[in-house]
Amino acid sequence: MVNMNPRQLNILLFGIVVGTLSARGDVLVGTNGERFVGTVIEVTTNQVVFDSEFAGRLVLPQSQIRELQRTSSPVTHQALPTTNGVSVVSKVVTNTPASASSWKPPGVGNDGSDWVQLKSGEWLKGNLKYVQNKQVEFDSDEMEQQTLKLKNVSQIYTAKPVFTQFEDREPAYGAVVVSNDVVTVLGDEPFSLTRDMLIGITPSGRRTGIRNWSGNAVFGFSLQSGNHDQTTVSTSLELARRTPATTFLLNYLGNYSEANGNENANNNRLGTTYDIRLNKHWFVRPEQTEAYQDHLANVEYRLTGGVGAGYYIFDRTGLEWTVAGGPSFQYTKFSTVESGRSDNASTPAMLLESKFKADITGRLTFIQSWQSTFMNRESGQYTHHTVTTLEFEIKRHLNLDVSMVWDYLQNPQVRSDGSLSQKSDLFMTVGLGVRF
Question: Does residue 394 fall inside a structural domain?
């Protein structure tokens, strides 16, 4: 046991208190009420540079700052330069974690905006786009559109009535408060349920509205081997419209290359799916379509349409895996064929697919989609289309995507000159992705 005199004990306690306060971070509160936790990097007469735990580096004019609480400085209540009459104050914060988490912006419920609180204590003000698949899409006044993990969100307050879907219940309409593990709908007959029963929240429910749409676009280049060894430009796009129990997806994947004035790659794949969530695990797919074109693989165009059903094997934050399948019909128009053979083929088909997504780290995500179609021999017998992606989040709206795409056709159609396309095409793409 170590003996300390009162002076040594006071010094030790002071060090513990200062260290604890410093660990909690500085706090920046904007004039619109949004609250960020992190570290003050620099304060000048015109602006504040703030490193937020959630938002990264922020550079804000002092006219947009209501209050700056500094735990990293031993100086208390030090007035900093003012701009347009707005004073930025530096002070040691003595809130305990409990009192910090109970702090609420005065505009919540009064200013006509939606609010989200993160578990870090930060508050965002703006418009809620949706809550679905353990994700929260939120358009923040300061940070613009953000995709948040539901597990990192502590509270949600909607300013207007929204549609909310719970497991084994009809959609409810009313303002919503999500507080920790409880979801409360303030409709004609208010009620509360646990968060694990929540399937989704959207502002307009079954109505139309731009706030129900979101998307992701990736642009880059690819190195391809197989039928063609070349460098190609690649583009992929996903648009999604969500309601509490439905998801409409439109996907596009295209590759184009030109060497010495000659086109040596030009393939496009456009698909749509519409899913209706029945409960926590099952969904039906009343519509699924795909259009595919690749002249160099002797496919003028191939159209597929069908219906199906699916099942969530995993559906939790950081891990999602769905499988689906169903009957379909396929029509193929070939670019060229041998003399005396039909240039088209049609067939009933069976479509099976798997989609897997897992967070490896906070910024690195592994995504794999697999789609197989089985049809008659004249149409190709069976095809596989697989996309394996590593997605690295550079910033909230910017990703670096590395993808491997594999297309396989078991029985290619013979061309008019007697040549035959290779069965397998494999190419890799590296590109920047933008979420919107």
Answer: yes
Q: Tell whether 158 and 71 lie within a shared domain.
A: no
Domain boundary among 199, 232, 253: 199
DSSP state of 212: G
pLDDT of amino acid 252: 96
Q: Are residues 188 and 325 in the same domain?
A: no
For the chain, which ranges sit under pLDDT 70?
1-24, 72-102, 144, 204-212, 222-230, 261, 396
- What DSSP string describes 254-295? EEEEEETTEEEEEEEEEEEEEEEE-SSSEEEEEEEEEEEEEG
- What residues contact residue 72 under an 8 Å CB cut-off, 6+ apart? 22, 25, 26, 39, 40
The Cα–Cα gap between 51 and 53 comes to 7
Euclidean distance between CA atoms 312 and 306, whole angstroms: 20
Co-location of 299 and 331 in the same domain = yes
**126, two tokens:** 């703006």
Domain that holds residue 414: 212-435
- pLDDT at residue 360 in the model: 93
**What's the CATH code of the domain at 56?**
2.30.30
141/271 same-domain check: no
Of the candidates 433, 427, 375, 434, the one whose C-alpha atom is nearest the C-alpha of residue 404 is 427
Q: Which tokens go with 389? A: 């992606």
The structure's pTM equals: 0.65
Q: Which of 98, 127, 148 is the last residue of a domain?
A: 98
Residues comprising the chain, all counted = 436
Round to whole Å and give the CA distance between 190 and 320. 31
Contact 274, 237 (CB under 8 A): no
